[in-house]
Amino acid sequence: MEKAMKTNKLPKTDSIQELARFWETHDLTDFEDKLEEVSKPVFTSGDSISLHLGPRAAKAVRRLAESKGVSQAQLIGQWVSQKLARRKRSVQPNE
User: Fold this and answer.
1) Exposed, middle or buried, 76 (CB in 10 Å: 0-12/13-18/19+)?
2) CA dihedral defined by 58, 63, 66, 67, rounded to 10 degrees?
């Protein structure tokens, strides 16, 4: 049986799902020439915050995240970052 043709390009994505799908059908040894040693951790985790939403809010967040193609955590993280950036701009003195 002939082996299915695989792409020889590494995916350029941060999506865990896309990376998992890619590595399910590829072997790391096929990319040995593209590997490089790193001295610092590549993945770092931030602080974790639990958030409890009511059913309506949770459903709205889930639907909006799905429509944007991001996870609920990514969407809420974007909102927090935007709010903090606006707050930072509003407290800085005018130049």
Assistant:
1) middle
2) -140
